[in-house]
Design goal:
The chain has about 130 residues and is of the alpha+beta class. The protein has 2 helices and 9 strands, in the order ββββββαβαββ. The chain is globular, with a radius of gyration of 15 Å.
Length: about 130
């Protein structure tokens, strides 16, 4: 396990997020508790909340929030979980709704039920012409 700049544990060999100008691109965010580095146990609802809280933390570290997110891609291992995902997801995206894709996959890392990646735009840093 490695420690990232905010002290949370990770065993990843890739970046959680990368900036390119005003854009912020994320890797898929899993329901991993950043304090322990382990998968959150429980139902899909607990896993979705953890993923959204992980995304919230990444956005805050970049001085952004959910209204700055332009696009998300959701990966589920069971499409029957979509209504639960949608309800919780809607608590975080209330005003500025990003474009979204949702796909079913056969499995996800760590045995997770859900993973979400995002693209955000920091318009406060937009280059003025």
């Amino acid at each position: 396990m490695k420690q990232n700049q905010n002290g949370t544990l990770t065993n990843r060999v890739y970046s959680n997020v990368r900036r390119a100008g005003v854009f912020l691109f994320s890797s898929g965010q899993s329901p991993i508790d950043p304090k322990t580095g382990t998968l959150v146990e429980g139902k899909i609802s607990e896993q979705v909340v953890q993923v959204m809280e992980n995304i919230k933390q990444l956005l805050q570290e970049e001085k952004l929030n959910f209204s700055d997110v332009l696009k998300t891609t959701v990966f589920l291992t069971n499409m029957d979980d979509f209504p639960v995902l949608n309800k919780i997801y809607g608590r975080y995206f209330q005003v500025h709704l990003p474009a979204r894709s949702c796909v079913v996959v056969s499995s996800l890392p760590y045995g997770a039920c859900v993973e979400i990646e995002f693209i955000a735009c920091d318009i406060s840093n937009e280059i003025k012409s």
